Amino acid sequence: MCIGYTYDLVCGHQLIHFATRCPESCPIPSGPRKPLNDTCAPCTPSFQSTNIARKYDELRAKHMRAIRVAQADGDREAEAEITKLMAKDQAERTAEMAKVWDLRRKLRVAEGGQTVVWPGKNDEKETNGPEDLFRVWKECVNGRKRHSSYDSC
What we know:
The protein has three helices and three strands. By secondary structure, it is mainly alpha-helical. It has three domains: about 1-40, no CATH class; about 45-105; about 120-153, no CATH class. The chain has a three-stranded mixed sheet with strand order 2-1-3, with no helix packed on it. Strand 1 and strand 2 form a beta hairpin. Helix 1 (about 45-75) packs antiparallel against helix 2 (about 75-105). The longest helix has about 30 residues, at about 75-105. Residues about 145-153 have low confidence and may be disordered.
């Protein structure tokens, strides 16, 4: 049985860390499962909003070219149809952005930052600020402290 940690991200995906693997190579390790107030890289709100804006800006440019062609040809029906398509695209863009805004809202922290959750770090081994974290890191790097897995450092 594989041993490790599973973190449930706000976006619905999971961050899985294997401390040890068994010969069967389990898809999910046996070990603690915790929520983590973060997203995976593709679900990051800024990345999502950039991609949504790019997608709909390209659609808008395409529709505007088609409207200019329809206006040059004097085709009022085609122009009206393309305008309706643009309104539909704008509604879809707003719906997609609403999901991003909701995710952004979930990620906000009410009163400043939160405690960082390090995969593999034991809950009972707390540190007292950045200086203590640096001391623990230096001990790991200098070899004064030996751990069974990389993430223990």
